Structures are given as C-alpha cells and as structure tokens.
C-alpha cells in the first residue's frame, strides 16, 4: 500500500475515533515519509489516548519543532501546552514546566494576542488550586474569557471546570456544582476534543465525590462509561473510568463486578509508566482484598498504591485493626489525621478515625472526630455524608453508654444507607443497633439485628465483619437478674471471671469509663459495695 493511502486511512480512522487504527496507520505513514505538523498532532493525540505516552510526547515535540520551523508561533505554543499537559499527567512536572516556559517565550517575543495565551493560564490556575482557590478561580476566569473571545470550546471547558472545583473548595457547593453541570453539557454535546472530554469527565466525577454528591457522581460515571465504550481502543480514560465505577459498585454491594472493574483498571493503567490513576486503582484493589479478608494481598496492594503516589490510609490502618493490631492502626490514623487540613481529605479519614479510636477505647477522641463529621454534614447537606455522620455519632453514643440516644442516631444512619442502596454500610450499622438493643435489655432485638448483619456480610463475602458479628452473636443471652440490663449482666459475668475494668472494656468494645458506669449501676441495683459481692451474686444466680 502506498504511503499516501496509509496516511489517508489514518486520517479517516482518526475522524471516526478508532484510536488504535489511527495510531498504527499514522505511525506507518510516518515511517514511510515524515508527517506534516497537522498529522503529527493527530498521531500525538492517538498515541496519548491509547496509552503510548512516550510516542505521544515524541510526536508533540516534532509537531512543535515543525511549527517553529514554519514560523507559526501560536501553533508551536499550542503543541508545547499539550506536551506539558501530558508530562504533568505522567508526573514529569519539571520537564512540563520547561515546555510551558518555551511556549510563553514564543508568544512573548511578538506580544501576540491569541487563544494560546489563555491555554497557558490553565496550568497556572491548576498550580494555584491547592494553596489559593480564589486566585485559581480568577486566573481560570481570565482563561475562559480568552476562550470565549476566540470561540475555543476546549479552552472554555478546561477553564470553567477549574472554576467550578475552586468554588467547591471555597464552600460554595451550589454555585460550583451548577458550573460543573454547565461544563458537562458541552462535553456531552461533543463540543470539545477527546483529550479535553476525558480529562473533564474524570475531574467532574472526582469533584462530585469530594462533596459526597453520590447521585451526580453515579450519573456522570455512567456517561463516562458510555463514552469510553464508544471508543474501545482508548486506554487512558478507560482505566480512570473503571476506578470510578468500582468505587460506586463497592458502595452498592456489587463486589464481584467491582473486583473485575478494578482489575481491568490496574491492567490498563500499569501497562505504561507514570499513570497517576494507577495509585487510585491499586488502593481500590487493596480495599477490596481487605473487605474480603484477604489480608496478605491487601498489604501488597496498599504498598503498590503507595509506590504510585497514593496515600494508603485509611485503608491500611483499618486492615491493621482487622488483623488485631490496634496499636499500629491507631498510630497510622493519628498521623494522617494530624497531617490532613483540608476538608475533603479529613472527611475521607474521619469515619475510620472514629472506628479505630473506639477500638482502642479513646472515646473522647472519637467524640471530637464524630462531632466534626456532623458539623460538615450540616454544611454540605449530602445524603451520603449524613449517613456517615449519623453512623459515627451513634457508635460514639453507644461507647459512651447512652444506648437509647445511640439507637436513634443508628436508626437514622441505617435508613440513610438503605436509601443509598449501600448494603455493607447498612449491615455495619445494624451490628451497632444490635449492641444498643442488648444494652437496653432487648435480647431478641439484638439477636435479630446481628443475624441480619451476618446474612449481608455472608452474601458480600465480608469475612472479617462476618467473624466479628458471629462472635458477638455467640455471647449468651442475658439471664434474669433483678433490674439489671442485658449489658450489665454481661459486665457482671466478666467481673465474676476475675477481669479488670480495662480487660472488660477491651472484650466488650467499650471505654473503661463506660464499664465503670455499668459497675456503679450494678452495685446500686444489687445493694452491694464490692467486686467480691458482685462475683458471689453472679454465681448464686447462675449468671456465669
């Protein structure tokens, strides 16, 4: 086949978004005869979308130099921008910064008024995003104005999504979400290039997850999946898409599907080098191993996620807790909680922090964290966050010995998880509801709640949660003992076994202060004043 025919085929494949064919045909044509700058840009795009980072960068570089040779500074600067975009995404920030500096020099030499000036504002806005959202918003606004003036939808879309996310970070959730919805209209309508569409899809979904807007995250993930499925050769965004899908599948209890999706994501993202989403995929893979009780595999996956730049917490701390290593879990979660200052990061850590603090019987620390989640939930008004907040609040109330108040919060949490169709989280709440019922003397209610939780854990394959629920269920039901509650009878049995308050607290997942309160109630109800008398009473009434 003649080189010209191969080139024509490559152009047609590019137009119909058959990226693998376009890459193969344009590469073949390039080997036969050097491509012109426009075709080099197409080759760079096809290589990028099929995960061939090195080939993409080489093609962008050649296109840049060709535009410089022909004296087309604007196009040369545009290629330098996409070079920097690719390099930043692959973690090569210094090299990417060098290409941005070259692009600025090209445009500054002739003081050119062109749309590329707006493109060069985009990375500047992104760099300011974490430290000064207001400034990032303003810079992105300048870029959007330039894009509007030159009618460049790619630039407008990139800039507006930065503004939307900056508004979210500044606590203006309604305004930020509205702007991101507007951005997505342009993406869905096909008004932007594939690279911009994929980048914005993933950015907007991530933003929805940051503010716990599960409905929007689910909707945009479904749209991203459809978009990716229409371009099956595409590697880059398919991997990120699968990670987002897996997170939602886990929440909805579709764990086998989540395992398949995250395994595919890892395969796609680890095929090349420098894929930042690989760390997120490996972390999700580790979480699934942990939930299924495959602890050795989970440790390895968390370590791999860390190598790819993903903080392995709070998953690794929860794993150590499940492995009966509470000291390691506590040290890890305290460290990351102390380092986390932005609201989004803290929200991802605090539920695990509460769980671990309760396990090590630091109820006061758990209370402070649960109160923080409640405050943020009131501000954001997101159903997922409300369920998280009520779950943490109820668990702390239970540990504080206020079973009646705990039951109210836990019932609200369970209803929230049910409405979100989140069976695993709902089952975890039912374990606490069962313990609250036990504290209130309702042995039948406790047994039924624990049985329901065990059934869900068994269906999901949540081995460590199942083991704990079964251990709690095996405890003997309370026997009649005057006015003692079921929990007080349970504490009395442990006292008769010669255990200290600290040992009883560890066995029953309570604080020592709560155990002391139970002891005080037992003494008052039975009219006794010593542990020896309590032990004698327990044996006399067949409570041990």
Can you offer a commentary on this structure?
This protein has 544 residues and is mainly α. Among the domains are: 382-475, Serine Threonine Protein Phosphatase 5, Tetratricopeptide repeat, CATH 1.25.40.10; 478-544, Orthogonal Bundle (Arc Repressor Mutant, subunit A). Helix content is 78%, strand content 0%. It has 30 helices and no strands. Helix 3 runs antiparallel to helix 4 (53-69) and helix 4 packs antiparallel against helix 5 (73-89). The radius of gyration is 29 Å and the shape is elongated. The relative contact order is 0.04. Residues 476-480 have low confidence and may be disordered.
Number of strands: 0
CATH superfamily of the domain at 382-475: Tetratricopeptide repeat domain
% residues in beta strands? under 5%
Mean pLDDT: 89
Classify the fold: give the CATH topology of the domain at 382-475: Serine Threonine Protein Phosphatase 5, Tetratricopeptide repeat
Distance between the termini: 89 Å
Which word captures the global form?
elongated
Q: Taking Cα atoms only, what radius of gyration do you get, to the nearest Å?
A: 29 Å
CATH C-level of the domain at 382-475 = Mainly Alpha
Helix content: over 70%
Which ranges are low-confidence, i.e. pLDDT below 50, for 5 or more consecutive residues? 476-480
